[in-house]
Specification:
Layout (H helix, E strand, L loop, with lengths): L1 E6 L14 H21 L3 E6 L9 E3 L4 H11 L3 E4 L8 H9 L4 E5 L5 E6 L12 H12 L3 E3 L3 H4 L7 H8 L3 H8 L2 E6 L2 E6 L2
Parallel strand pairs: 1-2, 1-4, 2-3, 5-7
Antiparallel strand pairs: 4-6, 5-6, 8-9
Helix pairs in contact: 1-3, 1-7
Length: 203
């Protein structure tokens, strides 16, 4: 199966700016993307990075500076089935992705926390994405209007996208790839305060 991996190379992980410098955010974003590409390949699928700018990656790169929805939909028009997996799913594993790709349904959708859509398998030729706002709800509605069958794929590993400082704790707790190694090398470690697990940095 062809798997699109959207990647914004212009200002990656901008919501981590309170914690990381621009250069550090780019390094972490690259590590996350490569972890995702490894997991996709090891699940037996073929990734294509759809990037806003030219980037060096371990998979083929297609540069497309249009909006995420427009860039993805142009490729859905050309070929289905196609999967879409976000580049910041640092906890994704080959086992989970293999189950996700094999799940039945005209649309298989893995929700992210906060109403987003972290991964899709699109088998209906007329389905189009809309990544603005509460995209998870909008994608379910669009599939219903098409009469397409839907499988909701509930997975902690696919629901966890790394784009907020609090998400770094999830990487340290559950990750074992390049991004987790990068965090540890950068001096981050788990910290427990008020019964919650977060991160602290030692330089």
């Amino acid at each position: 199966m062809r798997v699109l991996v959207p990647f914004d190379g212009r200002n990656p992980n901008s919501r981590l700016s309170p914690t990381l410098s621009a250069a550090e955010r780019r390094e972490l974003a690259d590590a996350l993307r490569e972890d995702v590409l490894d997991a996709i390949r090891n699940a037996g699928a073929e990734p294509l990075v759809v990037a806003t700018t030219d980037v060096e990656a371990s998979a083929p790169v297609s540069v497309d500076d249009r909006s995420l929805s427009t860039a993805v939909n142009a490729r859905l028009e050309a070929e289905t089935p196609t999967a879409v997996v976000m580049a910041d799913l640092g906890l994704a594993t080959p086992r989970v992705l293999s189950r996700f790709f094999d799940a039945s349904g005209d649309l298989v959708v893995a929700p992210g926390r906060g109403g987003g859509t972290n991964a899709l398998v699109v088998r209906h030729p007329d389905f189009r994405t809309d990544y603005h706002g509460a995209s998870y709800r909008d994608h379910l509605r669009a599939a219903h209007e098409l009469g397409a069958s839907v499988r909701e794929f509930d997975s902690h590993r696919l629901a966890t996208d790394v784009d907020e400082p609090a998400d770094l704790a999830e990487l340290l707790l559950h990750g074992d790839g390049r991004a987790t190694d990068w965090l540890r090398d950068a001096g981050f470690e788990l910290a427990t305060t008020d019964g919650r697990v977060g991160v602290e940095r030692h330089h």
